[in-house]
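Board notes (copied after class):
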Amino acid sequence: MEEIILNRSTPLKEAQKRARAVFADKDGWELPQSFGNTLKEYRAIREEVALADRSSYGRLRISGNDALDLLNRLSSNKVIDMPNGEGASTVLTTNKGRIIDLLLVINMGEDLLVITSPQTPAKVIEWLDLYTFTEDITVEDVTEETALISLIGPKADKILATAAAKTLPLYGVTEVTIGGMQLPVIRTDVFGIASYDVLTTASQSEKVWDTLVQAGAIAVGEEALETVRIEQGVPRYGREMGEEFNPLEAGLNSSISYVKGCYIGQEVVLRLKTYNKVQKHLVAIGFEEDSPSITTHMEIEGKNAGVLTSVIDSPLLGHSLALGYLRASYAEVGREVNVRIGDRLIKGRVLELPVNKP
């Protein structure tokens, strides 16, 4: 008999239902798509302070004397000497240099917090286990027992109301009092916009959420978050990230160290960079005439030039915007591309990332 896999819910679902959230399935989770006004939510992210439930992202607690050493040997960035209270983004790659996942590794002091994509915590654990032999390391999936709540926007630090949060460096950790509770807060700058991730237990999460709403944060759903993600050109697992792509194609250069020691897949990634052999690049394409579908192929001079991976109607541009992978020889700002819809070709143009107002 075929196993029926039900979508998971975050511990904030009841609080979100009370706020009249509209839910839908995404990445195996039932998540709020909007709270009734997607444009208002979008503007909160861009101009004010938004409150987002990111509890669908995997959270691993990794401990042991060899934890940082193993992650350093398996992923693209240097994490071996990471001090307590600091973090880094790093890419876990296959021996062919393909993306297993983009990880956020935070040194919490007694252990490491590793944040994965929503679909990948089990895959990441399996990969770490494959390369664990005599190392002193323990990996625990704490996704179900915790919640991850994000404050996003230019005024996010004002909600936290502490000097420590205002001066916190990227991926730095501090503690903030929310609803009478001392909680760790991580500066993550999701989508390249000022943001802070609050880590809490599942049982405390509703109180934290309600406290932040009362402080002025505007609850936002996946529709507004996805719109900003695409405008900012941030790859998402299952769309622009996965084993079909390497980190250079996906534009994950800031998560790669070229001076650290070896890691799985390093030889391939280094060769691609050294000899300029990257075959395609993640780009933004603006469409003023019509809205194409994802997985639609792009054409230049009648030749297949790439594929679209994500499409939205952009409030910033006032028309459709897509992310996609375009052949390296064509991946230049201003390049015109065509997308076929039935018998019609609609014109698009490569835009600079992140996308700005015209």
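Comment from the instructor: The mean pLDDT is 95. The first helix runs from residue 13 to 18.
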